[in-house]
Amino acid sequence: MKNWFRRMGERLARMMYGRYGNDALNNCLLIVGMILLLLAYLPHMWICLFFSVALLTWSNVRCFSRNIGKRRKELMRYLSIRNRIKDFFTLRKLMWKDRKTHCYFKCKSCKAVLRVPKGKGEIDVTCRCCHTVTVKKT
Ligand SMILES: [Zn+2]
After folding, report:
1. From CA 105, how far away is CA 101, in angstroms rounded?
2. How far is the CA of 132 from the centre of ligand 1 (A)?
3. How far apart are the first and last CA of the chain?
4. How far is the CA of 112 from the centre of ligand 1 (A)?
5. Radius of gyration over alpha carbons of the chain, in Å?
6. Residue 77 CA, ligand 1 centroid: distance in Å
7. What pLDDT, on a 0 to 100 scale, did the predictor assign at position 75?
8. Which terminus of the chain is less hemmed in, N or C, by CB atoms within 10 Å?
9. Distance of alpha carbon 49 from alpha carbon 42, whole angstroms
10. Residue 115 alpha carbon to ligand 1 centre in Å
11. Cα–Cα distances in Å, from 72 out to 22, 27, 29, 63, 76?
């Protein structure tokens, strides 16, 4: 039995040689596809089955693809979008946590988010990205 598992592992490794494999985008596609598959069991939600099959098929095609460069570009695009969304919510969480002690505002020239302490009166704030000085009342 132990030999059988070893041989199957070797066959699987041989089959996956030169293929892309799994990544974060594939995991996301699988999770969303499985959720849609479960939603398809609800009444009047049959359209979810179509999207579920499409996402699961896309995930498998990516996994067994030999065009590694194209798959990496897709992954980079996905990670860029995911990180932007993640950064947005991280900033909102931080703003909520510091709402009593700090003010947040955007730099007028480069749109970077700046944080200054509250209750200091009128202060000059220098942007750390573009070094623009702004007068702000806190
Ligand atoms: Zn700036």
Report:
1. 14
2. 6
3. 71
4. 5
5. 24
6. 26
7. 97
8. N
9. 10
10. 12
11. 11, 14, 15, 12, 6
